[in-house]
Each structure stands twice: as C-alpha cells, then as structure tokens.
Amino acid sequence: MAPKDSPASRSVGAVKPQTMKFTDPLKFKSGAVLDSYDLVYETYGALNAARSNAVLVCHALNAAHHVAGWYADDPGNVGWWDNMIGPGKPVDTDKFFVIGVNNVGGCFGSTGPKSIDPKTGMPYGSSFPVVTVDDWVNAQVRLADRLGIDSFAAVMGGSLGAMQALQWTVSYPERIRNSIVIAAAPKLSAQNIAFNEVARQAITTDPDFHGGDYYQHGVVPRRGLRLARMIGHITYLSDDAMMEKFGRSLRTGTISFHFDVDFEIESYLRYQGDKFSEYFDANTYLLITRALDYFDPAAAHGNDLSRALHAAKARFLVVSFTSDWRFSPARSREIVKALLDNRLDVSYAEIDAPHGHDAFLLDDPRYHALVRAYFDNIGAAS
Amino acid sequence: MNTPASGHSALSVRRDFEAIAAWVKPGSAVLDLGCGDGQLLRFLKEARGARGYGIEIADENVLACVKNGVNVIQSDLERGLAGFDADSFDYVILSQTLQAVRHTEEIVLEMLRVGREAIVSFPNFGRWDLRIQVARGKMPVSEELPYEWYNTPNVHLFTIADFDAFCVGHGIRVIERAVFHGGRTVRAFANFFGSVAVYRIQMRR
To answer: How close, in Å, is residue B7 to chain A by CA atoms?
Structure first.
C-alpha cells in the first residue's frame, strides 16, 4: 500500500528491525503462559530527552512492525503506513519517536506459532496460546518499559490496530495521552465474526493443515490461506471501489465457458491470495482473526461500552470512512458516544472516501490533513 | 452548515459570545451545533472552563476545529441528535445558525431534549431598517444578514416576535433573553431596534 509517488526525501529511509528478548513470563487472558518471547520492532525518529514524544503504531490483520521506510537489502519493501509516517508527514518523525511492533503470535519475527518452543524444540504450532487484544497491549507495554517510555504521546492504529489503541486507554490509562482510533469497531458484529469463521474454516479444513502442526510435515495449508485472504480482501473493499477498479472486465475480452479465470476480479483475488499464502503463517491468521472476534471491552462491564471506557483518560481522535462496510461509521459512532458519556476529549471525523475499509491505508488528503492537524497539537511534553 | 464568522461583524459575534459565556455556568458541559471553526467553544473553554463539543458537517470546519484544539464530532445536525441521550448536556447551543437549518422545529426540540437548557442566537429580521427595505420592495441586506436573496444560506428568516410566539406554541420557557445592535444591548422595543437576539430556553415540564 506504499505510495509510488512518495519522494525519498520524505521517507524515514532505510530502516532495520530490532529484536527485544523477554524472559519474564507473559500470562495470557486465556490463562496460558509464555515463559519467554521475542518482540520484533522498528523505530523512526529520535526519542527526546524527556522521553515524552513516543508514538506506538499498532498493526492490523496482515501487517507487522515494518510501518515506514524500506530495507537496504530490499528497497521495494516499503512500510505499510509509509504515507502517514515520516519526516514532514502527518505523523512527523522529525518531532515524534515512532515505534512499530510485530505482535506476539505474529509471523514476522516476534514469537508466534511458527517459532520454536524451547520446551519441545519443535514449532509451537497448535499449542501456541490464543491471543487477545489485551494480551498484545500487555506485551507492548513491556516493550515500552524496556525502551524507557513511561507514557506514549499517542498510540494509533487502523482496524484491529485501532482496537489496540482503544484498549491501551483502559488497560494503561496513565501511559497513553492520545489514542488515534481509525476505521474501528468496539466489537465485531455477527457478520464480522462470520467472515472470520469462513476464513478459519478454509484454513483448518485444508488437508495440509494437520491440526495446526503442519511445520513438521514440511507443508503449509496454502489453499486455505489463499481462500482466507480472498474472503478478507472482499471485505476490505467497497462494492463501488471494486466495480470501479474491475467492473465486469474480462481477461480475454470474452467469456470462456469454463470455471477458470474469466473476470479481472477473479484474477485479482487469486493473485492477492497466492501472494499472501507465500509469506503469511496460517496459524497466525487463525490467532489474529480470533483476537478480533474476542475483542469486546464492554463485555466485562455489563455490555456497557461507556462503563468500559470509564477508566480512560486519553484524548481521542476517531476516524471512519463512509464506504467502509466492514467497520462502518456507525461502529465508530458507538465509540464516540461512549467517550462523550465519559466527557473525554474526542474529535470524530467521517471521511467521505469511496475505497471501503482499506481507505485507512490510503493517501486521502482530508484524512491525512486531519491526522496531521491532530498531531500538530500533541505536545511532546507530558 | 456554516456559522456566521464570515457573515457577521466581529463586534456582534463577540457580543453574542459574551452573552452566551455570561450564562454558561463554569465547568459545564456544552454541545455547540454547527460550531464552525470552534471559536465559540474555544471562548467558552477559556472564559468559563466549559467542557465542550461541537457538531459540524463540513470537512473544512472539522479540520479547523481540530487545528484549534476544539472537540468536534462530524455529523449532520439536520438528522437530529439521535446519538445523544436526553439531558446529557448542561447547554446545547445554536449560535447564528437557526435561520440556516431546514428542520428548524425538530432541531430546537432536539436541543431541549439533549440539553437541560438551550441557547439560541439569531439575526432579527424584524429590525426597523430591514422592514424599510422590505417596504421598498427589496429583500433586506444588512451587516447581520449580508447575503443577497440568490446566495443566502438562510432559509428560515424570522423575527424576535416570531421566536417568542414559537416558544409559547411549543411549551418552551424563555429563561433569559439578550438583544444587541452594533455591540450595544437593546433594552426597549427589541424587535424594532435589535439586530441579534440570544435566548436561553428550556422545556416546560
């Protein structure tokens, strides 16, 4: 999703991921415990002397710690939010110290299902704990501890990343001053869970899944992962955006009376699915979709989101996109209402964008101007 | 929805703000409908320590509020305040906007549902110089109503007498009223000499 026209001068440039090793056990909401684990992260900009200008960027389903810049040995691998974060960009790395982290359970270097379990010498596979958004936030706060950050100027994210930014405000209200919640929902709808379940079924019924312990068999459930990604992708785009991009265009200009690719949209989904299945771990996909399903901060408060957010102290920027049907503006307004009920500082913008859920990754001038204006007002001092 | 910052003299807007600020109790919760760039909320925050939120539909005003450090909720107030609970604010304010909304009656009633009190300011169409312009057969143009008939955002022009009758007819109690012209308070024959009126109202219950 990197902007092709992004001039090099406005990029954070070549970046290197780092690894932080943790040996104090991480207890999960499920009761499971990881005795030790790694978190892979990247940082951009400089932490100021007061350690007050740190911004944590939380990733969504299929991204990770590589938020901005590129890798010297792989210049085409541009961070997933490079249009948002960099020198002079809406989140200005000349002013803020920005951290991207791969969550625990991930498949890009942080400890996850494909990592080796030191107890068995084998990949965790099916034995990896089911993670929740709370667990991720608990792991992120330990990274903050190790980096010497008492309080984040902001925690931000889109979609599932936004859920983490929201969870931060109730899990660690003293350690977050601004929460940037973009294209989010306070919990998944039955329809959202239904899509996730279809994706999981695609993976778990793939003959190469082997109950989640496919690593030992030297295979990956590629067909399932591919289908999961195709389903997901449909929910990221709006009907209009898909129609505009692909319409009913045919690959060869004529229908072929077979079940292989006829329409451009089929070709696109297959390509996205194939690409994804090459690099993403199927168990991580299961874990992350489950974390989405289970996210429901109101559940422990009588299903009252206002009560759930009672502990929050942060200021909020909430943004939704009109054509997002996965997490529609109405879902963001639920969050806004709960924040208003608690008389918390909140601004809410509904960006009229045609792209659907994916809009949060795109370079929309109104959206970026808003985030820029909000960050301009965030004081680096606590 | 535009607030009148550009369409009204700074002086009368200032008087309008001061009147509103004088009525707003310190530290109260305020909802400003059609808040524009948020200057009234900023004024109330600084002058009265109010905890305020604005409602705006226009992208550029939402952005201006964020730049001004004012809480703003992007929403179309013509669709009502369905997301807001009854009595959830101390004051719901509509500053120089009532004449520019379509669903005037519904909005005033919504304000009085969501707010324990409502504060409304509007340009008075009953002022004598406007009456003369109408008598001469032309639609009036003034400092407070600076638009021509063909480019005005105002769709419901009304007088102080009209608004008084509206309140009586809808069971609305007028707690306080202030009327101004050219930055000065108008005490007598308000509907004849006043150019801007500010009302503090509540529902009779």
So the answer is: 25
| Min Cα separation A91/chain B (Å) | 15
Q: Are A56 and A155 in contact (CB under 8 A)?
A: yes
Is the CB of A373 less than 8 angstroms away from the CB of B63?
yes
Chain B residues with beta carbon closer than 8 angstroms to that of A376: 67
Q: Which residues of A touch B69 (CB under 8 A)?
A: 377
| Residues B202, B167: Cα–Cα separation, whole Å | 9
For the record, the structure tokens of B155 come out as 């769709």
What is the bridge-based pairing of β-strands B72-74 and B172-181?
Answer: unpaired
Helix (H) or strand (E) holding B74: strand B72-74
Catalytic residue from among A11, A115, A159, A320? A159
Cα–Cα distance, A150 to A175 (Å, whole number): 6
Q: Which amino acid is at A367?
A: Y
Known catalytic membership, residue A328: no
pTM: 0.93
**B88 contacts in chain A (CB < 8 Å):** 340-341
Segments in chain A forming alpha helices (H): 133-147, 160-171, 190-204, 222-236, 239-246, 264-279, 282-294, 305-308, 329-341, 365-376
First to last CA, chain A: 33
- Residue B142 at interface with chain A, using a CB cutoff of 8 Å: no
**Given phi > 0 = left and psi -120 to 50 = alpha, else beta, which region is A291?**
alpha
pLDDT bracket for residue B79 (50, 70, 90): confident
What residues 91-130 of chain B have any CB closer than 8 A to a CB of chain A?
A: none
- Segment A224-245, tens digit of pLDDT: 999 999 999 999 999 999 999 9
User: Is B195 in contact with B12 (CB distance < 8 Å)?
Assistant: yes
Look at residue A116 and give its three-state secondary structure. Answer: strand
Contact list, A332 vs chain B (CB under 8 Å): none
Distances (CA, A) of B21 to A207, A368, B30, B47, B64: 70, 34, 11, 7, 21
Closest C-alpha among A198, A199, A167 to residue A184: A167
- Report how far apart the first and last C-alpha atoms of chain B are (Å, whole number): 31
Say if CB B112 and CB B118 are below 8 A apart: yes
Q: Report the alpha-carbon distance of residue A195 to residue A233 in Å, rounded.
A: 11
In the residue annotation, A357 being an active-site residue is answered as yes
Name the residue of chain B whose CA is nearest to A376's CA: B67
Reported as a single tens digit per residue, the pLDDT across B131-184 is 999 999 999 999 888 999 999 999 999 999 999 999 999 999 999 999 999 889
